[in-house]
Amino acid sequence: MACDFNKVKDTLPLEPLKRLLKRHDVELQVVNIDREAKHRNADPEQLAEESVLHDMLKEYHPRYYYNKESDIINGILDFAKGHHAQMVIALPHKYSFFQSLLHNSVSQQLTVHSAVPVLLLK
């Protein structure tokens, strides 16, 4: 699962994710593209968001990974390939109409370039 640790509580579609994880016996791997090394530098906001996510997903025993790749798409796809992921779960952000006109969608790019299925959870 590719996860942005920005406002986790507000952006993570927890119920659909839990339904998916309960139906299937999966090994959940959570990757965060951390270009600014906030995790390694113990950024207080980052650590608070991580803590929320850890609490939300603890019953599924996920493994957490941090990638410093400057290109988000390549970082996620390289991670999926290197860890033999069978699916990428992406959590698209919601944008206003005007923001969506100017924004280059990470989720859309993942679906175009991924060698494995991409599930977009909203």
What does this structure look like?
- By secondary structure, the protein is α/β, with parallel strands linked by helices.
- It has a single domain, classed as HUPs (Rossmann fold), CATH 3.40.50.620.
- The chain is 43% helix and 13% strand.
- The protein is built from six helices and four strands.
- The protein has helices at residues 8-11, 14-23, 44-57, 72-82, 97-102, 106-113; strands spanning 29-33, 63-67, 88-90, 118-120.
- The strands form two sheets. A two-stranded parallel ribbon has the order 1-2.
- α4 (72-82) crosses α6.
- The longest helix is centred in the middle third of the chain and has 14 residues, at 44-57.
- The protein is globular, with a radius of gyration of 14 Å.
Nutshell version of this structure?
The strands form two sheets. Strands 1-2 form a two-stranded parallel ribbon. It has a two-stranded parallel ribbon with strand order 3-4. The chain contains six helices and four strands; from the N terminus they run H-H-E-H-E-H-E-H-H-E.
Describe the secondary structure blueprint for this structure.
Elements: H1 8-11, H2 14-23, E1 29-33, H3 44-57, E2 63-67, H4 72-82, E3 88-90, H5 97-102, H6 106-113, E4 118-120
Parallel strand pairs: 1-2, 3-4
Helix pairs in contact: 4-6
Mass-distribution shape: globular
Instruction: Give the end-to-end Cα distance, rounded to a whole number of Å.
Output: 13 Å
Radius of gyration from the CA trace?
Answer: 14 Å
Give the domain tally: 1
CATH superfamily: HUPs
Order of helices and strands, N to C?
Answer: HHEHEHEHHE
What is the third-level CATH name, the topology? Rossmann fold
Report the top-level CATH class.
Alpha Beta
Mind describing the biggest β-sheet? Answer: 2 strands, parallel
Proportion of β residues?
5-15%
Mean pLDDT metric: 85
Structural class: alpha/beta
- The number of strands is 4
Helix content: 40-55%
| Contiguous uncertain segments of 5+ residues | 95-103
Query: Can you name the CATH architecture?
Result: 3-Layer(aba) Sandwich
How large is the count of helical segments? 6
Main β-sheet, spatial strand arrangement: 1-2
